[in-house]
From TrEMBL:
Reactions this protein catalyses: an N-terminal (5-L-glutamyl)-[peptide] + an alpha-amino acid = 5-L-glutamyl amino acid + an N-terminal L-alpha-aminoacyl-[peptide]; an S-substituted glutathione + H2O = an S-substituted L-cysteinylglycine + L-glutamate; glutathione + H2O = L-cysteinylglycine + L-glutamate
SUPFAM superfamilies in UniProt: N-terminal nucleophile aminohydrolases (Ntn hydrolases)
Gene that encodes it: ggt
Signal peptide: 1-26
Post-translational modification: Cleaved by autocatalysis into a large and a small subunit.
Annotated protein name in UniProt: Glutathione hydrolase proenzyme
Origin organism lineage: Bacteria, Pseudomonadati, Pseudomonadota, Gammaproteobacteria, Alteromonadales
UniProt subunit comment: This enzyme consists of two polypeptide chains, which are synthesized in precursor form from a single polypeptide.
InterPro entries xrefs: GGT-like_enzyme, GGT_lsub, GGT_peptidase, GGT_ssub_C, Ntn_hydrolases_N
GO MF annotations in UniProt: glutathione hydrolase activity; leukotriene C4 gamma-glutamyl transferase activity
Family: Belongs to the gamma-glutamyltransferase family.
Any single biological process term in GO: glutathione biosynthetic process
Length: 568
């Protein structure tokens, strides 16, 4: 009996210690932060970091065969549309920031599509809808990614699109093993959009979504890629593909037309920046949300974050309250600049940040935050090459596998980005025919003394500007390396006012990853914050940094996803 009790106590003790001890993969490392998952990847000639290892390897193959970073980014993005259709694909949009080594300059690309010209707010009123549905034909906007590839290729590429799409065509026809996290999202999306035409035929094997390690093929996507490779941009926007999309959408009650496809154009845009403690952080201007990261950083720069320490209620509270301020402006001002005069320079100015910072109470969580007054599931990848070119590229179908609209025999899903419009006619982001919706996907870049330093991004909806700011703070304020900055436990605030018209009245809630202490959590509750545990919502990070002194690249990849950073 006594022996049995002792055995039970030993077992209970071992279980307790298992629950209390940090994870072995962190504390067993002999270098770096205790939460670091692995070392940075370091290479001289080229580096790629994507959310799926096969895509990373395709990027490296392109580099090794004489292609540049832009070529490799396009090839990797095309493969991700096959191997990770749960977060990307040619039915979605694309944004990129390119450091061009030849001109020593940053270039921004907005390859996001517009709403159908035949879709108006009155249409929804007639249908008795007070908001735009998340799935089905109505939230579909023109897919801009393919045009983005050709814009990048024509301006910076060195290889033909036939060469760049060849690896994806081969994998689509012959198959690839599905990775773990993507298998999970396949199953989740089947529950959301599996009832729509084409899902079973395109994305299942004998009626079931592919499981981890199972070989998956998409011959329809292979055929679509072949048409794009040989027929160019027009094959997608003015040829048979566009006609198929238009006909399918009409059959489903949608309004996206052949004319909407044929008239699509992307735009080169000037990236915008703020200086954070000596480093220039670059984002793209609206209709994306990139400048929210700059607004957050401008407020955080007014605090001594290092002295607070990362695991403190003071630090978490400051980050969250700065985010609430930026997101209040995001809800009011961020929209298509072709339809509004957006005060970007004012929003990202240091003077405006000082005014907004005065609204933060260090001891109490704000329940509601108004915008300032002014007169007047996604993939991210980054590639760098031996010439010094660097690409920061993000691409998405919006809600994982988008709208659920799968045009007949094309092998991909159309995005549901139009869900992001507001139906309030007085809102900056109000739905208008031929207008670009507010966008969440944002690439980022860092320069110092007008030289390239870092290309990075964190995929994941409204998570992105919060995490962009946290990555920068982790590296600059807390001295972390490139991998540690992504591995560090993250802070996520949810519930701010939104560009779709939702208003925060209760302060929202904070979600903290494992690694923040019980004391920090308790102290946040005392400041009036609501805490809520979530999983899978903290984003996916990839980054490349240039060490100009040693002439090497550092690469880092997200431990929360299936990704890989690799170089040669």
């Amino acid at each position: 009996m006594l022996k049995s009790i002792k055995s039970t106590l030993v077992l209970f003790s071992s279980i307790s210690m298992t629950l209390l001890l940090p994870s072995a993969n962190a504390y067993d490392r002999i270098t770096g932060e205790t939460f670091a998952s692995r070392s940075e990847v370091i290479a001289q000639n080229g580096m790629a970091a994507t959310s799926q290892p096969l895509a990373t390897q395709v990027a490296l193959d392109i580099l090794k065969s004489g292609g540049n970073a832009i070529d490799a980014a396009i090839a990797a993005n095309a493969l991700l549309g096959l191997v990770e259709p749960t977060g990307s694909g040619i039915g979605g949009d694309l944004f990129a920031i390119v450091w061009d080594a030849k001109s020593q300059k940053l270039y921004g690309l907005n390859a996001s599509g517009r709403s159908p010209k035949g879709l108006t707010r009155d249409y929804f009123a007639q249908k008795g809808l007070d908001k735009i549905p998340a799935f089905g034909p109505l939230p579909v906007s023109v897919p801009g990614a393919v045009d983005g590839w050709f814009m990048l290729n024509e301006r910076f590429g060195s290889k033909s699109m036939q060469e760049l799409l060849a690896p994806s065509i081969d994998y689509a026809r012959n198959g690839f093993p599905v990775s773990e996290v993507i298998a999970y999202y396949f199953e989740m999306n089947q529950k959301r959009i599996g009832q729509y035409p084409g899902f079973q035929e395109t994305f299942t094997i004998n009626g079931n979504t592919p499981k981890k390690g199972q070989i998956f093929k998409n011959p329809n996507l292979a055929a679509t890629y072949e048409k794009i490779a040989t027929g160019g941009r027009d094959a997608f926007y003015k040829g048979d593909i566009a006609r198929t999309i238009s006909g399918f959408m009409q059959s489903q009650g949608g309004l996206l037309s052949y004319q909407d496809m044929a008239s699509h154009t992307s735009n080169w845009v000037e990236p915008v920046s703020t200086n954070y403690r000596g480093y220039d952080v670059w984002e793209l201007p609206p209709n994306g949300q990139g400048i929210a990261a700059l607004q957050i950083l401008n407020v955080l720069e007014l605090y001594d974050l290092e002295s607070m320490g990362r695991d403190s209620a003071e630090f978490v509270h400051t980050v969250v309250e700065a985010k609430k301020l930026a997101f209040a402006d995001r809800a009011k001002f961020y929209a298509d600049p072709d339809f509004n005069q957006i005060p970007v320079d004012w929003l990202i100015s240091k003077e405006y940040a000082k005014k907004r910072q005065k609204l933060i109470d260090p001891n109490a969580a704000a329940k509601r935050v108004d915008a300032g007054k002014h007169e007047g599931d996604t993939i991210y990848l980054t590639v760098a090459d031996s010439q010094g070119n660097m690409v920061s590229l993000i691409q998405s179908n919006y809600r994982g596998m988008g709208s659920g609209m799968i045009p007949t025999d094309l092998g991909f899903v159309l995005q549901n980005r139009g869900e992001m419009f507001s139906l309030d006619k007085n809102h900056f982001n109000a739905l208008e025919p031929g207008k670009r919706p507010f966008h969440t996907i944002i690439p980022a870049f860092v320069t110092r003394n007008n030289k390239p330093l870092m290309s990075f991004g964190v995929m994941g909806g409204g998570t992105q500007p919060q995490m962009h700011a946290q990555i920068i703070v982790n590296m600059i304020d807390f001295g972390m390396n490139l991998q540690e900055a992504g591995d560090a436990p993250r802070i996520l605030h949810t519930g701010s006012s939104s560009p779709e018209g939702d208003i925060m009245t209760d302060g929202g809630y904070i979600s903290l990853e494992s690694g923040f202490s019980a004391k920090t959590r308790r102290d946040l509750l005392q400041k009036g914050h609501t805490l809520k545990d979530v999983s899978g919502a903290f984003g996916g990070y990839q980054a490349i940094m240039l060490d100009d002194k040693n002439k090497v690249y550092y690469g880092a990849s997200e431990t929360r996803k299936d990704g890989q950073a690799a170089g040669y």
